[in-house]
Amino acid sequence: HAWSTRARRLPIRYERRADIYEAFTVLQASLITLHQIERFC
């Protein structure tokens, strides 16, 4: 998971609540997708 090394909060679960951790994971995946789209447009 090379993409997860770019996000400090994702490799280690710092958040106590699972829903917050999941939200950061979804946010990071969305940012990666946006970056990929920008490269092709």
Structural domain count:
1
What portion of the residues fall into strands of 2 or more residues?
A: under 5%
Mean pLDDT: 77
Give me the number of helical elements: 1
Tell me the Rg in angstroms. Answer: 11 Å
| Straight-line distance between termini | 25 Å
Q: Please give the number of β-strands.
A: 0
Q: Helix share of residues? A: 55-70%
SSE series: H
Task: Please write out the topology.
Layout: H1 18-40
Q: Care to describe what's here?
A:
By secondary structure, this protein is mainly α. It has one domain. 56% of the residues lie in helices and 0% in strands. It is built from 1 helix and no strands. The protein has one helix at 18-40. It starts with 17 loop residues before the first helix and ends with a helix. 0% of the residues are buried. It comes from Methylobacterium tarhaniae. This is Transposase.
Which short descriptors sum up this protein?
mainly alpha, Transposase
In short:
The protein is mostly helical. It has one helix at 18-40.
